[in-house]
Write a structure and sequence with these properties.
It is built from 13 helices and no strands. It is mainly α. Helix 3 packs antiparallel against helix 4, helix 4 crosses helix 7 and helix 9 packs antiparallel against helix 10. It is globular and about 60 Å long. The relative contact order is 0.11.
């Protein structure tokens, strides 16, 4: 039992996320088995996972040619858009484009992904490789290419399927009309989109100004939350998750907003952004008066 003493410490947030995922998988598996759909749904998800892995493998090959691992940042939104469209085209009930939840959800996810990929692609064209990936490569042992492929591209292919689960769940169902619940989800998605798009636009203008590019952004939406763009992204996925609730088994799609919110708050979004921001003058005062994630009035 000595190996138990050597296991890494798990943060309580990660522990509860693991519990949620285990419970989620067990519940979904049980419900699908009782409905006699476990095999067909498993095959459907398997094909989409293979699609994500194929796209990420091509992306990995391209990243080796251009010697930039941060290509993955641009591919993240692109792969999820492909999964959304592919799941709609492969709908087992022959649902097509129209005034239905499937079309709306796929369109909203596509708008999110295309905007995100375009935004990141423009950044990649004018900046060198993200130093985060250089630091990761220095920490890894063994073959650099294998580590990069498995730890970055394969992991994100799996995460892409998890994050896209809400729209996949929607697109696996029968033709569903746009109900009141769906409209609530659409409205929430719209609020999130505005926060992300306006937040990114305000930050871009701030950073391209020679007088403020090295200063701390505290204006506009950034006055009410330190991360309006990440808050917006999470809110959009909660909107899609709520749209999924317009269907009888739509609760299965709630994995998406839970995963993306956790990733943004505790893994790749907020922690890395704050690590860079805390080096700038005025950070302590700004962080004390401004909400970390959910927009609130500044503290006095």
């Amino acid at each position: 039992m000595d190996f138990l003493y050597k296991t890494p410490e798990v943060a309580w947030r990660a522990f509860f996320l693991i519990l949620f995922i285990v419970g989620y998988v067990a519940t979904v598996t049980t419900v699908l088995a009782m409905c006699g759909k476990l095999e067909s749904v498993g095959l459907f998800i398997g094909v989409l996972l293979l699609t994500a892995l194929t796209l990420m493998t091509f992306a990995f090959g391209f990243s080796r040619l251009v010697r930039r691992t941060d290509i993955i940042d641009m591919m993240w939104g692109t792969v999820i858009v492909v999964l959304a469209i592919a799941s709609l085209l492969a709908n087992p009930y022959g649902v097509g484009l129209g005034m239905n939840v499937q079309t709306v959800a796929t369109a909203l996810v596509s708008v999110w992904g295309i905007r995100l990929s375009y935004h990141i692609a423009r950044r990649l064209l004018r900046t060198p490789e993200d130093p985060r990936y250089k630091q990761l490569r220095k920490k890894w042992r063994g073959n650099d290419a294998i580590n990069t492929y498995l730890r970055v591209f394969v992991v994100q292919a799996v995460l892409a399927v998890c994050v896209a689960s809400s729209v996949i769940c929607i697109n696996m169902a029968e033709d569903t009309e746009i109900s009141a619940v769906a409209w609530v989800g659409i409205a929430i998605w719209g609020i999130g989109f505005l926060f992300e798009a306006i937040g990114d636009w305000q930050l871009k203008r701030f950073l391209t100004n020679a007088k403020t590019k090295n200063a701390l952004m505290t204006r506009g939406l950034w006055r009410y939350t330190r991360h309006p763009n990440y808050f917006g992204e999470a809110t959009m996925w909660w909107g899609v998750g709520i749209i999924a609730l317009a269907q009888p088994i739509g609760w299965m799609g709630l994995l998406s907003p839970v995963i993306i919110t956790y990733l943004l708050l505790y893994v790749s979004g907020v922690p890395l952004a704050e690590k860079r921001a805390e080096k700038k003058a005025g950070w302590k005062a700004y962080s004390r008066r401004t909400s970390k994630f959910v927009p609130l009035l500044p503290r006095e």
